[in-house]
Amino acid sequence: MSEVAERLKNIIKPENLIYGKSPVLNNVTMHYCPGCSHGVVHKLIAEVIDELGIQDQTIGVSPVGCAVFAYNYIDIDWAEAAHGRAPAVATGIKRVMPEKTVFTYQGDGDLAAIGTAETMHAVNRGENIVMIFINNAIYGMTGGQMAPTTLLGQVTSTTPNGRNVDLNGYPLKITELIAQLPGAAYVTRQSVHTPSAVRKAKKAIKKAFELSQKKIGTCFVEVVSTCNSGWKMTPVESNDWMVKQMFPLFPLGDLKDGGKDATEPFNLRSE
Amino acid sequence: MGELRLMKGNEVIAEAAIRYGCDGYFGYPITPQSEVMELLMANRPWETTGMVVLQAESEIASIHMVYGAAGCGKRVMTSSSSPGISLMAEGISYLAGCELPCVIVNVQRGGPGLGTIQPSQADYNQATKGGGHGDYSLLVLAPASVQEMNDFVGLGFDLAYKYRNPVMILADGVIGQMMEKVELMEQQPRWTDQQLKEITGSWATLGKTKDREKHVITSLELDSSIMEDNNLRLQAKYQRMKEEDVRFETIDCEDADYILVAFGSAARICQKTIQMARAKGYRVGLLRPITLFPFPEKAIAEIAEHVKGFLTVEFNAGQMVYDVRLAVNGKAKVEYFGRMGGIVPSPDEVEKALFQKLIGD
């Protein structure tokens, strides 16, 4: 036994470390429910900021919603925005500090309901910011009410008989709308439910942060996410439900990629 | 002597912002103050001082752009008129809650609702008592001339940074639209990055460096005992404003039996009224609050010891009159006269009300 311990001691050395917590993540316990996607996306953003070496150059804008406390977890300067106003707040920051990397982190209610005007106009102006959009088709923080992205038939606390078109209208595919705007440079939809999806999502977030430094317009990353508490499912059931029910309406992949034309101003680029 | 020009009040706000070294203006057009942004866009200060000017998609967006930029320590402002200020109420509450300095100009028009584009002072309560949610106060400056529109931009920023609090310049359609001679300030440079860091580096979101903790601009605190402490800190700040920055003007108050209390353009009209009343042998004075918050309650209380009565003259249904009554505290009669809906009363009307409500009985 002591021989095994001795061998382990030789293995557990800093030079053999292949994975660790990003130094840009704070040493605090996250308040998110087990199985929630927020924690994974936070980790990815922290890793990207660390890998790009822009911790002192990045200002985040946190939303109202479950991610309101994002500022507790990622070790950068933050402004906490009123509900839906994050794109306006980020615009104000970026316009007076144009050399900084500025990103918003918003849920579906924040970005696609109460803040739709701020979202569309920030992108339409081609603000050189990154927008991270967590779409879990429900209002998590307030206890599971209908979101603009709630699926038809989906049961929430304010659609107890399922979302009904006559009463509630249709789920809003705002990312598709965003991709139509000439101010958008890079628009992609990702998820973080499998290791390979997490790797792809990280690549997309990193690309968005890198492109935003080139000032070619808004970089928009939707992450189709789980809310197992709101959906009243286990984390495993949630992943399964998301794949089967959400992905057909919100298919993963790039909707617009301005990276190829990154040297040209977004407003001169032909669509 | 600075440069003299004949300008509209609204234009002077824009000119003063550039010359003071303001870092940014975010706004949305609304009558009767659209000249502010129009002149800024025409002058293209981003090519000279580096000042940012942006037309937002709404007043909601513009005030939250101010919030983001003010959180970076930058000297930023917005302007609007009454319905637009109602839309900004959310952002103003957040700015006050986060203790962010900025200047907000309200060139008031008549309400309620869409109301009228004619001048009004009906946003007195909104400006001085809140407007948004929560226990907060703005420091409110009431200009009565185009010159004060110029002066209060600089004074407004100075006070905003002294207290880390939003400052409102509460003008009205008369002051915004009328042209007067104005002495402009010399062009001042914007703060350098070094100055910005020295002045705001302890709290602003300038980018987290290794030598300090992260800065978070937020008004959220779920622990009630800490949230109460945050409120107590705000209230202590408002108390300090009352002790250090009450501003008012008195005209002919020393020997007066009757005092008119009026702010902004209503005070201009009252200046004529007191001349008319004095010509008839009545000793009438004028107290013009310049800061509506903090209100000159001590000055009014002192005057109340030796006068027979006060008449507030307001372009509203009687809002400031309650603050005057609180200050007078029963020591003298306090009456109100005003017009609403965009009507500006004449000096004769004010004199008639003075005789009917105070002198006559």
Can you give a write-up of this model?
The complex is a heterodimer of chains A (271) and B (361). Chain A has a single domain (21-261), classed as Thiamin diphosphate (ThDP)-binding fold, Pyr/PP domains (Rossmann fold, 3-Layer(aba) Sandwich). Chain A is α/β, with parallel strands linked by helices. The relative contact order of chain A is 0.14. Chain A has helices at residues 2-11, 38-52, 86-96, 108-114, 116-124, 165-168, 174-179, 195-212, 228-231, 235-249, and strands at residues 58-62, 77-80, 101-107, 130-135, 184-191, 218-224, 253-257. The model of chain A is unreliable at 260-271 (pLDDT under 50). Chain A is built from ten helices and seven strands. Chain B folds into two domains: 4-193, Thiamin diphosphate (ThDP)-binding fold, Pyr/PP domains (Rossmann fold, 3-Layer(aba) Sandwich), CATH 3.40.50.970; 248-359, Rossmann fold. Chain B has helices at 9-20, 35-43, 59-71, 82-97, 124-129, 146-163, 173-177, 193-200, 224-244, 264-279, 297-304, 320-328, 347-359; strands spanning 4-8, 24-27, 52-55, 76-80, 102-108, 139-141, 166-172, 179-183, 216-217, 248-251, 258-261, 284-289, 291-293, 309-314, 333-338. In chain B, helix 1 packs across helix 2 (35-43), helix 1 (9-20) packs across helix 6 (146-163) and helix 11 packs across helix 12. The longest helix of chain B has 21 residues, at 224-244. Chain B is globular. Chain B starts with a strand and ends with a helix. Classes of the chains: A alpha/beta (271), B alpha/beta (361). At the A-B interface, strand 1, strand 2, helix 3 and helix 5 of A face helix 3, helix 4 and strand 9 of B.
